[in-house]
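PROTEIN DESIGN WORKSHEET
SECTION A - STRUCTURE
LENGTH: 147
TOKENS:
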């Protein structure tokens, strides 16, 4: 009888210790209870590979004006004529967008946010996507004076 109890104790004791350790680890590193459901959450999802790209038009003086025309043609319907946002899409003047890198915006523009209604613009030629990014980055953020 003693051998049976010792064997059972040797089997149960490691499981009990493991359970206590796992419970302690969960308290120290609680999992996030909520996902970031903000309309700007996608900005944080750009992969590192995409973030390594540079805007080849960042020094092109005509990129902003060309981007403004493309924005009016492809983006204003949802984001508003002045990029202020609307019922279909968020403001591009908001801090999360204006603080995002041009590479991040290029990635969002290329891949879209389909589940939120933003189409994929990968068929738009790459230089035109960079022009739109240049235009968006030239905008005055909400609540701040012009540059």
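SECTION B - SEQUENCE
RESIDUE ASSIGNMENT:
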């Amino acid at each position: 009888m003693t051998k049976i109890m010792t064997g059972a104790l040797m089997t149960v004791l490691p499981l009990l210790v493991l359970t206590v350790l796992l419970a302690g680890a969960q308290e120290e590193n609680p999992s996030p209870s909520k996902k970031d459901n903000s309309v700007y959450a996608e900005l944080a999802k750009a992969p590192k590979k995409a973030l390594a790209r540079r805007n080849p038009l960042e020094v092109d003086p005509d990129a902003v004006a060309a981007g403004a025309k493309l924005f009016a043609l492809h983006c204003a319907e949802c984001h508003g004529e002045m990029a202020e946002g609307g019922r279909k899409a968020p403001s591009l003047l908001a801090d999360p967008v204006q603080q995002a890198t041009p590479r991040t915006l290029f990635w969002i523009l290329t891949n879209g946010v389909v589940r939120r209604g933003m189409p994929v613009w990968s068929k738009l030629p790459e230089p035109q996507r960079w022009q739109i990014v240049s235009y968006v980055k030239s905008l005055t953020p909400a609540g701040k004076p012009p540059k």
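SECTION C - NOTES
The helical segments are 2-28, 48-51, 63-74, 76-79, 95-98, 102-111, 126-138.
The radius of gyration is 25 Å.
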